[in-house]
Amino acid sequence: LVIVGPTAAGKTAIAIELAERLSAEVVSADSRYFYRKMDIGTAKPDLVERKGIPHHLIDVADPDETWSLALFKEAAMQAINDIHIRGKLPILVGGTGQYIKAVVEGWSIPEQEPDFRLRDAITRWGEEIGSEQLHSKLAFIDPEAASNIDHRNMRRTVRALEVIFNTGQQFSSLRTRTLSPYSRFILGLRLDREKLYQRIDQRIELMIQNGLISETKSLISEGYSPDLPALSAIGYREVIGYLQGNYALEEAVRLIKKNTRTFVRRQANWFKETDEQIHWVHALDYSIDEIISTLSNPNNWQTDQQQPD
User: Fold this and answer.
1) pTM of the full structure
2) Rounded to an integer, what distance in angstroms lies between the CA atom of residue 68 and that of residue 74?
3) Which of helix, strand or coil describes residue 131?
4) Positions of E strands within 246-297
């Protein structure tokens, strides 16, 4: 079972509710949940919220470790396999589109060895011309790769250019799709944009109240560099800007809200309401019983190949 939808739509809550009813376990496909000590700024469900439901791929790395898409896919498939062995249903849930699709669509992701000298050279180039201009260079060479990378995320832009220059191939062409080994049902949560923005703003205000500033300070005081990829996540990077004296707290909060809305619009490119493979329900008006009834019909599940009896 796969649960998708935008940030703040309530994916975690419905996943836990269904897991309780279906004897299931949750596999997180949220790239921000990987990191220990980053709880408030990621809206990571705590142990009380998880209600005793096993959750996989949460708190599996320190903030200075980097999890690639290939590493995530390998770990997710291992978790899914382990859950199947125990005779339970895996629920893959998250808002990181490429992580979901890598598993659901059976992406084959080659691991390209890093070329640190080339990477450093591209990074210096990016620092000279700015992240947006560097992203425009990628867009000229590989529009598909650029469309899936936020222009502010210079680390991912640099990595894409590094692979292109090393292999002579488009970054997007190196990712191929194979037959997925899974039967799957994709459940999508939808919510009108105005209401979703209200929920996002409320969540961000709650993060500030619950200690996002002190959590970020603690990470920096423990020696984690503000330049780490993990700390470039929305929420942390704006608070770091505030702590560095670049702007007032009110501006940091405004930027978090603005950047989260931009992220939500990008999420929508991965999971469209016109996608017939996704069973959409309203995030604030759904029936768990009706969802379970729909799940119980094997004709509603998708397969890429004939499954063994």
Assistant:
1) 0.83
2) 10
3) helix
4) 278-282
